[in-house]
Amino acid sequence: MWSNFHTHNAYCDGKGVIQDYIRKAEELEMLSLGISSHAPLPFANKWCMKPADLNAYLNELRDLKKKSPVDLYTSLEIDFIPGVISPNDFRDKLDYTVGSIHFVEQLPDGTRWEIDGTHAFFLEGYEKIFNNNIRDTLTRYYELTREMVATACPTVVGHLDKIKIQNVDGKLFSESDAWYQQEVKKTIDAIAASGAIIEVNTRGLYQKKSATTYPGPWILEYILQKAIPVTLSSDAHHPDDLVNQFSDTAMLLQKIGFKTLTILHEGHWQPFPYNEHGIIVR
Ligand SMILES: [Zn+2]
Ligand SMILES: [Zn+2]
């Protein structure tokens, strides 16, 4: 019995309608399910919801919640771009928010630079915005996460270190570099102070874009030291990915020492014990 609070669907770039995810969650006997399409952005973008669809999305979820066989919650994965969009813009409409950094600064022509698009696009911004300085690039990325939790704290911080997918074969930096570890730890400290939950996101594993979860194991060890609650998510863009890599990741979390996963159930975020088969409800 699992739960998942980071899922997409056809309102944004996910495959299948919301009901397909509910049906799959029922089949998997999931305890809770959160629907979190990409929140509409105020500029052209291929993967987020269209601004005009937001009301239909919220209404559809309101109706589905009345008849859903699984404990269902309404959310959005919301970008944080200072002065442009933040979790504060949507939280009143939602059961919880997922806050994620996808954009860091703009190219000289004004194009918003995505950190999880193609590697070629990453390299373009890396050169044009940051003069190929990896430390400045990663510092700005983590600074934005800190600014988000300080000024527009989401319920859940999404895929904390996803920018590492661009570090193909470790060519750009090493995660054991002292400056990188300090930057990440400073960010975890800020999250600890904010009270946000950190998701352990398995998407990089099953997409084969990362050998480790977002965030990776050494960061999870520090998160445990700081006693920050964690939840397990797959960032599913297809119903078949609702619990993808959950069993292995639960075993990893147990090995690191996490005793509970924090789950939204019956209207409250609560810690639940778990094992490799799922959450344990007593
Ligand atoms: Zn995301
Ligand atoms: Zn996502």
From TrEMBL:
InterPro entries: Histidinol_P_phosphatase_HisJ (IPR010140), PHP_dom (IPR004013), Pol/histidinol_Pase-like (IPR016195). Keywords: Amino-acid biosynthesis, Histidine biosynthesis, Hydrolase. Pathway: Amino-acid biosynthesis; L-histidine biosynthesis; L-histidine from 5-phospho-alpha-D-ribose 1-diphosphate: step 8/9. One of its GO terms (biological process) is L-histidine biosynthetic process. Pfam families: PHP. Its EC number is 3.1.3.15. Signal peptide: none annotated. Gene3D superfamilies: Metal-dependent hydrolases. Residues 5-202 form the PHP domain. It catalyses: L-histidinol phosphate + H2O = L-histidinol + phosphate. GO terms for molecular function: histidinol-phosphatase activity. GO terms for cellular component: cytoplasm. CDD domains: PHP_HisPPase_Hisj_like. NCBIfam families: hisJ_fam. Belongs to the PHP hydrolase family. HisK subfamily. This is Histidinol-phosphatase.
